[in-house]
Amino acid sequence: MTVADIRRPTLVALVAAVCASLSSCKSPEKEEIDTSSVAPDSSVAPDSSSPVMVSTRQAPARSLEVYIDTVLPANPLVVRGRARTFENTVQVRARDSEGNIVAAEHVTSVGEMGQHNPYMAQLWIARDPGPRLTVEAFEYSAKDGSVRSLTSTVVPYTVERMRVVLDLPVGNDCIETRAFPRSVPKSVSMARLLVEVLVGGADRAEKAAGAVSPFPQRSDVNSVVLRDGVITVDFNERLQNVGGSCAATAIRHSVTRTLSRLPAVKRVVITAGGSEKLALQP
What we know:
Layout: H1 3-22, E1 39-40, E2 54-55, E3 66-72, E4 77-83, E5 89-95, E6 101-108, E7 117-123, E8 132-140, E9 147-156, E10 161-169, E11 177-185, H2 190-200, H3 204-208, E12 221-227, E13 230-235, H4 245-259, E14 267-272
Parallel strand pairs: 13-14
Antiparallel strand pairs: 1-2, 2-3, 3-4, 4-7, 5-6, 5-8, 8-9, 10-11, 12-13
Helix pairs in contact: 2-4
């Protein structure tokens, strides 16, 4: 018998005593990650004026192609995660409390293909979604266009609602617009929110009252910049040719009249793909 053999029981007893005094000792190999709880991000103050980041990070033991790691329930809704998809493409969307899709965005994860690369999506919520949102991330199959690798999470959505007024085209008149009030989740980017709401189109009640949506499909907002009273709205290249002079006129009047309601706006400039000359061509 060696000296080490004699001392080993004493050492074991000492460790046991220390564990007992600390009330808990846990073997690392038995530790599990609890993904059912919702944990706020420590960098965001949990008060009514600042939305709390919701952590949804899944346990490493799960083998998924697309992960949703955190959701910031603001407007825009900010979704971060990791994805290993074809050409790094990721589809992110949000459903309201009744299951209807209220926002969708196509993004690209950053990194070498074949790896779980980080992505970030901003989803503008253009109508009241109710008390919670279901956030989904997935990819479309390159083979048949079906949804693949769908992952989702439900988050509470308590963002303060505010009333905005939209000038929407009505009937077949290219020039006439009518003011429609709508309740939307509040945003610090008021001008951007208004444009995103217009691009999203008239809701059911507004359509019943005669409102129409002049924006063509796949219309998107690149940026909204206010400087010295001039607000410049840059749309994607889809707004360079809108399919007719009536549609071009209706879009211009709707955007200009809606944004002109903001006190700081003196003039509205519309561009598409960075070009004012090419914007809203018939």
